[in-house]
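---------- Forwarded message ----------

FYI, see the Methyltransferase record below. Original note from H. follows.
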Amino acid sequence: MAGPKPSKPSIIRTNVYSLTLILFLCIFSYLFGLWQHGGPTSLLPATTSTTTVVDIACSTATATATAPKTIDFTAHHVAATSSEAVMKTYPLCNISYSEYTPCQDGKRSLKFSRRRLIYRERHCPAKSELLKCRVPAPYGYRNPFAWPTSRDLLTVEKAVQNWIRYEGDRFRFPGGGTMFPNGADAYIDDIGKLINLNDGSIRTAIDTGCGVASWGAYLLSRNIITMSFAPRDTHEAQVQFALERGVPALIGVLAAERLPYPSRAFDMAHCSRCLIPWNQFGGIYLIEVDRVLRPGGYWILSGPPINWKKHARGWQRTKEDLNKEQTAIENVAKSLCWEKIKEKGDIAIWRKPINHLNCKTNQKLSQNPPFCPVQDPDKAWYTQMGTCLTRLPEVSSNRETAGGELAKWPQRLNAVPPRISKGTVKGITPEIFQQNSELWKKRLSYYKAMNNQLGQSGRYRNILDMNAHLGGFAAALIDFPVWVMNVVPAEAKINTLGVIYERGLIGTYTNWCEAMSTYPRTYDLIHADSVFSLYKDRCETEDILLEMDRILRPEGGVIFRDDVDELVKVKRIIDALKWQSQIVDHEDGPLEREKLLFAVKLYWTAPAEETASESS
């Protein structure tokens, strides 16, 4: 027989006593553990939030809601050794280095052959010769005018050429420079009467021996973007003028090595009085133009020897000599299977075939030049030119465009590039390409939220993407008044520069353990995505950052994206470079190891007295 049931109040009392005992034991254990691990101060987090809006001028940093003004990773990411913890300093270089281009240095170039202008190619300093100082801007340096004013006007200290007109406190290019007596716009209109420049079929162009890049500058209004290049000259620095104008340009020369661009990159190539000996050395320079010219692309030649009957006396050359030169050029173009489609006035235009079916038949008969053996036609970093014809991809009919037909601009930007749709880029599918495009739209929105000047018209013009991959960052910026130099590092696992060009964008190969082929103070904004992870154990982080400092304009910005450990090392060095910077979280939140580092190079120049003593 069951005993009597306990009353309800007694059950409640028992439960209360049990709960009180458990609570007491929990609190005691917690406090005991806290006492063992250093007291209550260890409970305070280093930061409570990581969402920060950064003003690129770095004069203020406005935080959202409860966010702190700085994000400190030092509690968990500290220097590996005591020597790293010591702040290194980077003094100013001598004013004589204000226009220093390490891999095109005039003194070093004298050690190399002048044959075929080899001495003007890239010849970089040895590791022991690398500068460990900050290249100064000349005293009084001012950043260029905002685009499009900069296309026609220069700041005073830059305009030192006798063909530039002085107007108050600024200088003006007369009609686009010396290359086009009637102005670059009128010259381009003349070309437009011979081939269609307005239907979007021509988007990328290359200008060899570009002068001050007026041709490229005025093509921009026609939605054609031009890669202009010229050698490093000793006094005029014309590529530097082009960059100051806000026009894409690189230091470069047709000599012994391939141009640093992939095959089938450009819709149009151009030479106006560029002084390149197209008919010499077995036609090797036209053969190189053929490599980078897209199937169906155009080559435009103006100036000597075109229209020699009219200009022979003004050029101070005999008609026989000029006729011989033009005939030799015509023969080289014919041997490449190009078709001369127009010659009118001072302009002659040839067209490359859309495939090599008929050309192969002709080559079997002439064997001049022969087709290259099977090789990578996109390999173009320190790669020797050849006197053989670069093979186009195979086709099945005369009407098929080798490598695939490109969409017209602007649809070309977001259409799946033929290199991807045909499966020739390892590991990149159409789906991956499209996802990458959407990803960069998202990332750009986040960048704009962090850097409230990124969306301001005129704040930036020349932008460098140091590790461009598929060109997604540049594509996301397409509606901004900027241009982007998309770099595919020579050490990248996948060569994607051909894809970038098939999108209607431009770029180049570079090894970031060396200096870039450009002048100091070239870029307004630099984007460095996973650059330091890529070059880890390849070269010194400080050397890459000193090169970035050289090519970044005063008050220019940098967006670093990398593993947090790499960014902590980078921040330590750029603090020593006198940049202002701030680390913020990844757009997907604080749990991502990849972080962002926004930085700005402060305005400074060489001291006035140093500049004066150097010029005296």
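H. also flagged this: The two ends are 120 Å apart (CA to CA).
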